[in-house]
Specification:
Blueprint: H1 2-13, E1 28-38, E2 42-52, E3 57-68, E4 74-87, E5 92-108, E6 111-129, E7 132-143, E8 150-160, E9 165-174, E10 177-187
Antiparallel strand pairs: 1-2, 1-10, 2-3, 3-4, 4-5, 5-6, 6-7, 7-8, 8-9, 9-10
Length: 188
């Protein structure tokens, strides 16, 4: 009975929850160049998107494909998840996200390199100027099949040249590998 009352109270309070920070949109599509440097050097492309279905919730996803340098090995990664954003000031959101991930490198030396996993990250996204926002996140990702889980950090920024068009840059620091992305972003 107590659990039911708590669940009803939480559901009733959702419409009263703080909205996203003013000027930050979780509705976007982006595509661009992706590169990894470190233990493995690779480059390719990525496409990502996000859709806010509530003031505080959004779904996001992405696909990227990279070819490892000096090999014929292509690594594809898919990601889909759910995010929660809570305005902690007029210009800053607290951000928490969880995602399902799939890593597919095809068949290498007679072995299928196809792994399912998940990630979770938390951080902040802030409108730093009228046309510029940035974010800082820490996360953890883990895959099945003997790949050890690892913590990572992400920094990113979006510069808008018009109400809808801008440029996004993102750097992910994951152990000995640094992954960076740059590309145009369409926001609505």
């Amino acid at each position: 009975m107590k659990r039911s009352l708590i669940a009803i109270a939480l559901a009733a309070s959702l419409p009263l929850a703080a909205n996203a920070a003013e000027g930050i949109s979780y509705n976007y599509l982006e595509a661009g160049y992706l590169a990894s440097n470190g233990d493995v050097d690779a480059d390719g492309y990525a496409a990502n998107g996000s859709f806010a279905f509530h003031d505080n919730f959004h779904v996001f996803g992405g696909f990227n494909s990279q070819e490892i340098d000096d090999t014929r090995i292509d690594v594809d990664q898919y990601r889909i998840g759910l995010g929660y954003n809570l305005g902690i000031s007029q210009r800053t959101d607290l951000l928490a996200r969880v995602a399902y991930q799939k890593l597919d490198a095809g068949r290498v030396l007679g072995n299928d390199l196809d792994f399912d996993g998940w990630s979770t990250e938390v951080g902040a996204r802030s409108l730093l100027a009228n046309n510029f926002d940035g974010y800082a996140l820490v996360g953890y990702e883990d895959y099945d099949g003997g790949i050890d889980g690892d913590f990572y950090g992400r920094l990113g920024a979006n510069v808008r040249f018009s109400p809808n068009w801008g440029l996004n840059g993102d750097v992910k620091f994951n152990g000995d590998v640094t992954e960076w992305f740059v590309g145009p972003r369409f926001t609505w």
